[in-house]
Design a protein that fits this description.
Shape: elongated
Largest sheet: 15 strands, antiparallel
Strand content: 25-35%
Number of strands: 38
Distance between the termini: 69 Å
Number of helices: 16
Radius of gyration: 37 Å
Helix content: 10-25%
Length: 793
């Protein structure tokens, strides 16, 4: 489902590098945690749990363990890819692998090329659960396919990665890397060739291309901005500049799968610091100021928690602890395995648990530079967990551009799968990333009624178009293709069909009441005769107009009178001679918030034992039309008029048998100041046929069987002004804009199922025995059955 939105245009321009003052101390960047490298399908022994610093004689290990001095602070940057790296064979996008630091090992076959990817705006969940989807080992764990099925996979977003670079020619990365925005701080060029492999692996987890081979990233529709700054000599202030570049390029999130470490290659954790000033002195004002600016701009910075198995996360992951203005823009990430348990190597969320998530980080298959042995590799570490969260930000932003970075962080936190102790806890923080739950609406769904999110809105549950079956069927068919949005607590727009608000009701209470009234013979208008005229009055029902011969007389004799609950009715008929009479009728009432006034005039002609009648009239309703109640966001000052004409025939068939026919046709119009603005040329109709016989079983009994259709819409036009999109957030500034779209739709008729009524009455001693049945079929059917005996004195 593609949600309502306006994509903000973002200028993808890079920032010229600005040199900053170097610190007095020395900063070193170290690549660590590569214990064993296995090429092809040969598997190497797994690292023992908690032993990421084991070395081997492999050349790649030596390179990985080396350090490079640069100007900066007295800490080091450590790439947080841990444990065994298994290199997969390039052919078919697959290859061997190895276990993580969990201690197990196995031979892993290359991931098959699998089915062709399902691309487009969405589809079924299963269509995205391909071999490529399952290959990495982490996507299924985040339930990302549920977002893809709604058309959300990062399209239109930019993600920056500060790491060791990337293999820009890799078949699973080339199409998604923006070379013009990428930059190497090693030599101040756009050449970000990765000679380590860590950055390439991270890039694949974020945005590996969905192409039917190898693996795909969690945000496979996003573009990547590769910023090479870890694993080589870089100028002082490079990281601060990388943050600024990312913000200016329009990145929605920035991945940081590294941590500052001490001289013993141990992660500097947030608990080792006691003040903001101390952290500022450690990192430098340029870094703090750039992250503060990123927070204001709405970019989310995601940091690895660290691989020392410690009780607290890295310094960078815990920055909001001392810089509260960064809360909502910085997330720390710890790693869990496929059983949703903390990885043995992972640092806990600790003091930073209020801004920390868990994500898959054990035995993750992703892209790897072919120059280092193969196209794919298995790696474990908080480095691997972090890009899942970074990419998740892009997925949510692509689905809901109206969200600010801070809102996305809140949603990811609140929708995480709770692990460990109930609630936020020092091990797992908010819990494990869950993209399926992240899409679920938060709070009460609302219908916006103006072009501003700050304007009035109405709860969706209070916004209904409640209609009888004949009208509801046509409205549902008509509005099924009219899309609109509802918003949640974050002002996210969710597309729904306007027909979702149409309620089809059959009034079971009214059906039962009509059978009870008939069975008990309780309906009887008060009649007054004056000369050739008769005045009839009824209270609480329409018997003065519709009569009492049928179980539901209004359905048979006056269909438009059945549009409302009659409070009172008056009917005056005068004879004109030669079997001709004229009458005028008036009734008032309503239901709920709808008030109705009915007036009609009839001309009747008798031909022997048969009668022919023609009626013209008007039905005026405030709050609805044709018995339809329009409430909440759809209503508001709605007023309607229906002009109708009705033909009736009563034919005597002899032997006490009578055939009655009714056909009615109406033309309605309405106007209102809610979302349902107007209706014009609304043609409606209703029909009834009934057969009655006096002397059915005895000389004084009567049986009647009637079939009628409720008033049904046949044609016409509705004009609506509905919310269809929410303005995209610009940076961290929420848009107030709601796009209200005015549309005119032609009515699509939908014939309702006919109603059935059966009545029987006879004298019984000093009273009357009566039985009645009314059945109104449909999505919401109604039935009334009654048997009664009434004594008269």
């Amino acid at each position: 489902m593609t949600m309502g939105r306006i994509l903000a245009a973002t200028a993808l321009t890079s920032l010229a590098v600005t040199q900053v003052h170097a610190h007095d101390l020395t900063q070193r960047i170290a690549l660590a945690g590569r214990t064993t490298v296995s090429y092809g399908l040969a598997q190497a022994p797994a690292a023992a749990p908690g032993s990421p610093d084991t070395t081997s004689g492999n050349t790649a290990d030596t390179a990985a363990a080396s350090t490079t001095s640069v100007t900066g602070s007295n800490s080091m940057l450590l790439l947080l890819g841990l444990g065994v790296v298994g290199l997969a064979a390039a052919a078919g996008g697959g290859g061997g692998g190895s276990s993580s630091s969990s201690g197990s090992s196995s031979n892993t076959q290359p991931p098959p090329s699998g089915n062709a990817p399902y691309t487009g705006t969405g589809g079924s969940v299963s269509s995205f659960e391909t071999d490529e989807y399952y290959a990495s080992g982490g996507l299924a764990q985040t339930e990302a396919a549920y977002r893809y099925a709604e058309g959300a996979y990062g399209l239109g977003t930019l993600v920056s990665i500060y790491d060791s670079g990337a293999d820009v020619t890799h078949p699973d990365l080339a199409d998604n890397i923006d070379g013009a925005l990428s930059y190497s701080y090693f030599d101040n060029t756009s050449d970000v060739t990765d000679t380590d492999g860590h950055g390439t692996h991270v890039a694949g987890i974020v945005a590996g291309v969905q192409n039917g081979q190898g693996i795909e990233g969690i945000a496979w529709g996003s573009k990547l901005m590769i910023l090479q700054g870890v694993g080589g000599s870089v100028p002082a202030g490079s990281y601060a500049d990388a943050v600024t570049r990312s913000v200016n390029a329009g990145a929605v999130s920035m991945n940081n799968s590294w941590a500052y470490v001490d001289g013993n290659n141990k992660t500097l954790t947030i608990d080792q610091f006691s003040s903001a000033d101390q952290i500022r002195q450690q990192l430098g004002s340029a870094t703090i100021d750039s992250l503060d600016a990123a927070a204001k701009a709405g970019m989310v910075s995601v940091f690895a928690a660290g691989n020392d198995g410690g009780a607290n996360p890295s310094l960078m992951a815990g920055l909001p602890e001392y810089f509260p203005e960064m809360e909502g823009s910085i997330l720390g990430v710890m790693a869990v395995d496929s059983n949703h348990q903390i990885a043995s190597f992972s640092n806990r969320c600790g003091e930073a648990m209020n801004y920390c998530l868990a994500a898959p980080g054990v035995d993750i298959l992703s892209t790897y530079p072919s120059d280092l042995g193969s196209d794919y590799a298995y790696m474990s570490g908080t480095s691997m967990a972090t890009p899942y969260v970074t990419g998740a930000v892009a997925v949510l932003k692509s689905e809901f551009p109206e969200l600010t970075g801070q809102q996305i962080v809140q949603i990811l936190e609140n929708s995480a799968t709770d692990l460990g102790a109930v609630g936020i806890d020092p091990i797992y923080g908010w819990g494990e990333l869950n993209l399926r739950q992240a899409q679920a609406p938060a709070g009460t769904l609302k219908v916006e009624t103006t072009s501003s999110l700050d304007g009035p809105s109405v709860p969706a549950t209070q916004s209904t178009i409640s209609a009888t079956r004949g009208v509801a069927g046509a409205l549902r068919a008509t509005l099924s293709n009219q899309r609109m949005i509802v918003t949640d607590a974050y002002d996210r727009g969710y597309h729904v069909a306007a027909s979702s608000f149409v309620a089809d009701y059959a009034d079971a209470r009214a059906a039962q009441a009509s059978t009870e009234t008939f069975a008990m013979g309780a309906t009887a208008p008060v009649n007054f005769s004056a000369g050739t005229g008769t005045l009839s009055l009824s209270h609480g029902d329409s018997s003065a107009i519709a009569g009492t011969k049928w179980v539901d007389s209004a359905a048979m004799a006056a269909p438009y009178l059945k549009s409302f609950d009659t409070a009172s009715a008056i009917h005056y008929e005068i004879g004109l001679g030669d079997g001709v009479s004229a009458s005028i009728s008036q009734a008032g009432g309503g239901a709920g918030d709808v008030t109705s006034q009915y007036i009609a005039g009839s001309l009747n002609a008798r031909f022997g034992a048969s009668t022919l009648s023609m009626t013209v009239g008007n039905l005026h309703e405030d709050g609805g039309f044709l018995g339809t109640s329009v409430g909440g966001a759809f209503g508001g000052g709605l007023s309607s008029n229906t002009h109708f004409v009705q033909l009736g025939m009563n034919v005597s068939l002899g032997d006490g048998t009578t055939l009655e026919l009714t056909a009615a046709n109406g033309n309605s119009s309405f106007s209102g100041n809610g979302l349902l603005q107007s209706g014009s040329g609304l043609r409606s109709n209703a029909y009834a046929i009934g057969l009655s016989k006096t002397g059915f079983l005895t000389g004084d009994d009567r049986i009647s069987v009637g079939v009628s259709t409720p008033i049904a819409l046949a044609s016409g036009k509705l004009t609506m002004s509905v919310p269809t999109a929410v303005g995209a957030a610009i940076g961290n500034t929420r848009s107030e804009k709601v796009v209200m779209t005015t549309a005119s739709v032609n009515i699509e008729s939908a014939a309702p199922q006919p109603d059935l009524q059966i009545g029987y009455s006879r004298k019984a001693g000093i009273g009357r025995l009566g039985a009645g049945l009314v059945y109104e079929p449909g999505q919401s059917s109604a039935m009334g059955v009654s048997l009664g005996w009434t004594a008269r004195f």
